[in-house]
Amino acid sequence: MLSKSQIAKLLSCSISRRKTDFYVASSCYLCNSFCTLTKPPERNESPEIPSWVKCLDDKSHGSPDADENFVIPSLASWVNSYGSYGRTEVAKVTSSDIEEINVEKVCKLLRNRYSSPDCVVAALNASGVGSSSRMIERILKKFSNDWIPAFGVFTWAKLQMGHHHPSVLCDLMVDILGKSRKFHLMWKLVEEIRMLEGYVTLATMSKVMRRLARAGKYQDAIEVFKEIEQFGVKRDVAAMNVLMDALVKENSVEHALEVFLQFKACIPCDIHTYNILIHGHCKCKQFDNARKFLEEMEQQGFEPNVISYTCFVEWYSREQDFHNVNAILDEMKKKGCSPNTVTYTILMQGLGKAKQINDALGVYENMKTIGCAPDPSFYSSLIYILSKAGRFKDAWDVYEDMGKQGVKPDLLTYNTVIAAACEHSQEETALKILKKMEEDSCKPDLKTYASLIKMCCRKKRMKVLQFLLNHMFKNDVSIEVSTYSLLVRGLCKSGKLEEACLFFEEMVARGIVPWETTYKLLVNKLDGMSMGKQKEHIQKLMSEAKEWAEI
DNA sequence: GTAGGGTTAG
C-alpha cells in the first residue's frame, strides 16, 4: 500500500517539471519498496519484467513471494486506473495528481515563515517544483490571509512561466494585497497588468474600491472611480453602484450620497442605485431620508421593488419598531409587491431578537399559507432563534425537517447547527455535522471552525483543538486575526496561559498585528498569575508587531 | 457584492 507521502516523495524527485499528461507509478518487481515513476511502456514491451521499472532504493531484495501484496494496491483518488504487466502492476498518475502533489509541496514550504515575498521566491526557486495557474489559484485561496507567502508564490510562478497569470488570478492577488492593506504593492500590481490587454476589468477595480473603502479610505475609493477610465474601465452606472455599495457597506452613506449627487447629472442611475441609497440610510436609521429616496425613485420612473421595501422591514425590525414594520407590509400589499423569503426571514429574525418567539414561529405558518417556500437561509434563522431561546431540541428537529421538505442544508445552515450544538456543549453532535459537511462536499469556512474552537477552548479539549486546526488547513481555510484572537481569548479564559502565549507568538510571527483587546486580556491574565517572564515576552512581541505594521 | 449570514465585555 502506497501512502500519499510516498508518492509525493517519489514524484518530487523526478517529474515535477515535466509536462506529459500522465505517468506511471510502479513498485519494484523484486522488493516492495516504491520505486519509480515513468512514462507508460509501449504495448509491445515485454510484460515479464518491464525494463522501465527500476528500484530507486538500493536495498537488498528479499524474496518476491514474501509478500503477495507488494504491487500497488488501492491508491484511492490518486490513481484512476490500473494496468498489469507481469508481476508488477502499474498505476496511472494524471497531471491533476501531479498538481495535487505540487500544491502540497509548495504549501509545506510556505508554512516556514518567510520575512518577505522575495525570500519565498528564492526558496521556491531552489525547490525545483513546477507550477501552473490552476495550482497557484488553489494556493492563493489557501493563503488568502497571509500576503507574504501568497505574493511570493504569485511572483515566483509568474517568473517561472514567463508571462502573467490569467486576469482572475491577478484579481485574486489584488484582493489579497488590499485585504492586508498593502496598498502600495496592490497598486504596483494593478499598474503592471494595466499594460496587458483586457486584464484590468471592473472586477479588478471593484476589489480595489472595496478594499480601500474597508480600510476607511473613502476618499481614495472615490478617486479610483473618478479616474477609472484611465484603467480602461468604463465609468458607468455599474461601476458607480459598486463604489456606492462599498461605501454604504463600510458605513459611510454620506460618501455614497456625495458620489450620487456629484454624478447623477452625467451618469443615469438605475433601480440598484436607489436601493443602495435606501439601504444605506435605513442602516443608519435615517428613515426619513430613506423614504425620500423611495419617493424620488418613483418620480424617476422606477417602481420600488421587494428589495426597496425589505430594507425598511429589516431596519425597523432591528429597532423593534413593529408598528412601522406592519405599515411597510401594508404598503407593499397596496402596491401589489409581495414579500418574498428574504422579507419573511428578516421579519422572523427581528421577532426572534425581540424575544417574541411565538410570533416568529407564526411567520413560518404564515409563509406556508401564502405558499412562499422557505430556503436554507430561512431555516438557518429558525434554527438560530430556537437555539438562542434554549430550545436546542426544537432547533435540531427543524434541521432534520429540512431534509424531509427537500431543502438541502448549505454552509450557513451547517454553521448555524454547529454553532447551536457548540453553544449547548453537544460536542459529538457538532463534530458529526462537520463530518456530514465533508460528505456533502460543503466546504467549511472560518465561522464553522470558530464555534468549534470556542467550545474546545471552553472545555479544554486540546487534542480536538489540534485536530480542528489541521482540519482547517486541509480545507484551505486560512487562519487569520479573528481566529487567533478567539484562540488566545478562549485559552485565557480556561487558564491555559502557556498555550495562549504560543498562539499569540504564532500570530505575530505571521505578521498579524493582534487586537488591542486580545493583547490586554493576555497580559492581564499573565500578570494575575505572576508570570512576569512571559508577560515581558508578549509585550515585546506586541511592540514588534506594531513596528512592522507601520513599515 | 441592490435586501437576510446574527458579539470583540462581563
TrEMBL record:
Keywords recorded for this protein, A-Z: Repeat
Ranges of the PPR repeats in the UniProt entry: 201-235, 270-304, 305-339, 340-374, 375-409, 410-444, 445-479, 480-514
Top-level taxon in the UniProt lineage: Eukaryota
Gene3D superfamilies: Tetratricopeptide repeat domain
UniProt cross-references to InterPro entries, sorted A to Z: PPR_rpt, TPR-like_helical_dom_sf
NCBIfam families, A to Z: PPR (TIGR00756)
The protein's name: Pentatricopeptide repeat-containing protein
Source organism of the structure: Eucalyptus globulus
